[in-house]
């Protein structure tokens, strides 16, 4: 009897194990692909404002708009009748709870005052404040909360006596109830702060979740599609590991909502949210192999500093600014949708030379130095038998910053005609040698870069006398004066500035023509790979700014890109391309492997003409994504910049970016999430970024160019 019972219980144990084993094996076998959703969600909430601490005065520039002041180290307080601040809320709208700690500035006053609070111009209510610090708990309804930047207004109680100044309030702290990352692995979600994440789901998959609940919170996950069909998955009370296979009516984008029902102070700590799926059935055709050329070609990279694509004839400009480049474009591959990965010389050139996104090469601020482990185009070509020379018109490229690393000869000359002279001198010494090595020549001409001081020969082009003149000869000073609103050019003066710029472009184009003629004369041109591009564009008040480095709008990131390289077909190419593609393209042309995975793709192997591109501008804390729409997220210091909205959405057909849209579809939400994931995950070289130790001489030159104050 005892034996039979033992046998029975062992049988049960074996069966149970078999069942468990089958369960776990079934999930592992059926859904072998795991995606860590929790890390993506954490990246998507990182830019949300959790707390504004008014004791940290330095950090307040990011939040305070108008109506705030402080005296002699005293506390920051409201001033006047309308005090405003901004905070960022990036998750899809939900009721938002906030705690405001504040007091009346009039010390010892017995009576209370009733200031009003507004959110995005909508009244929230009036609340009592005395001279003792108190914390007010507020709930902003979902309809009033915007995705992106929100403006919180505080209006002191209106005095019955018009002669009395509005009472000032000292705000000490504003805390927002929002999910917050804990360490590397977890995310804490307060009760009631539901959180949405948008995700493309197959019809069958498994969710693998682990969480811990505190203070009697009941967690669940809701999946709903754009038609509102919802599946609710209740998780175990108290949390713990949980796995569930889900079947949906059809595959598509769903809103995954993490819900935590419970009272005040309750919260859930999520330590794992993984999506387990089958491998994708999409078969990507293998790119055709590229056979390396029998002889390594000479390579000429011609970069024009600050030349926006829409000011070249071959990109549809009405003025004949670029006859030589237009001719070059007619004979070669012209990329209509080419982008710089940033909007000023330093990060843009580093992306161009390394094939890495700005967040990965970490060379974004004026004194940043390219990490030692990053490999430049010139270094790689030099290693593969090339002679390398650079003649540039911009000190930002100096080898002291690492960007110009790998050039055996590096010279700086002011104008493109002087750059040509220097380049010809170098080539004259190199080309006549028998069995000479192949050549990599970088020409980086800065003529269109401010100051707009065209060569006298070009000063009468494009009927400039039609426009109202403005003294443009002060260069970077003019730009800073316009930015500080010390000068407000009239529409005619903007046209005048653009015309000076176009004259500079025309001057540059004539230099390009001379370089080409020289290379043809020396029999170098015919077999050479020649690339013409610009590091970034230039703004003329399209979005309220001038010069460059100020935003990620199209006037600043759309650049010309024309390539003479036999495998690339002649004519107009519509696919999206970016600067990070150039390094892998050159390596591919030579049959070389990249030194490590690059962010760009060889233009010889583009399989997705609509792939997602990313752009960074660290000085304005701005990131952009180009997906089905273009989205720009900017989290700037408002003391420096008050007019830029934090979230801009544009249709791709709106190339002038004049008609901002809202985030409308689930697809738009996915694009924003991709932007935030790109922005908030660590770069390729971790913490290797560093400041360059530059010479006094270089510092002075950078000051003269307006890069350092
Ligand atoms: Zn530049």
What topology emerges from the helices and strands here?
Layout: H1 2-30, E1 33-36, H2 37-45, E2 51-53, E3 64-66, E4 68-69, E5 77-78, E6 83-89, E7 96-104, E8 116-119, E9 122-126, E10 134-140, E11 148-155, E12 169-176, E13 180-182, E14 186-190, E15 195-201, E16 204-214, E17 218-225, E18 230-234, E19 239-247, E20 252-261, E21 267-277, E22 299-304, H3 323-331, E23 333-339, H4 345-354, H5 358-361, E24 368-369, H6 377-383, E25 387-392, E26 409-412, H7 416-430, E27 439-445, H8 476-483, H9 491-521, E28 529-534, E29 539-540, E30 546-547, H10 554-557, E31 561-564, E32 571-578, H11 582-589, E33 613-617, E34 622-626, E35 629-634, E36 647-651, H12 666-680, E37 690-691, H13 696-704
The protein binds zinc ion.
